[in-house]
Design a protein that fits this description.
Addiction module protein, mainly alpha, 63% helix, 78 residues
Length: 78
C-alpha cells in the first residue's frame, strides 16, 4: 500500500526535527544517485593508458631520486 503525497506530507510533519532532517538527507541522496551521470565503463582503461608514462631514457636510480627529493626540499624550505 503506497501513501499519497498528502498522506506522506502529513506523516513527515509529525516527525521530530532531527528525523525530518534525516528524511531530507535521504531524499537528496536518492536524487543525487539518480541524477549523477553514469560513470564510463572502465573496460580497456589499462590498454588506453598503457605506455602513457614511457620515457625515452632509463628510469632514475634510487640515488638520483633521493637527490631530486633533497633538492626539492631545500628549494621549498629555504
Amino acid at each position: 500500500m503506497s501513501m499519497s503525497w498528502e498522506e506522506l506530507r502529513k506523516e513527515a510533519y509529525q516527525l521530530s526535527v532531527s528525523d525530518r532532517l534525516l528524511l531530507v538527507e535521504a531524499i537528496v541522496r536518492s536524487l543525487s544517485n539518480e541524477l549523477r551521470p553514469r560513470p564510463e565503463p572502465t573496460e580497456g582503461i589499462v590498454e588506453r593508458l598503457a605506455g602513457s608514462l614511457k620515457t625515452d631514457g632509463s628510469p632514475p636510480t634510487d640515488k638520483e631520486i633521493e637527490a631530486l627529493l633533497e633538492d626539492r626540499l631545500k628549494e621549498k624550505h629555504l
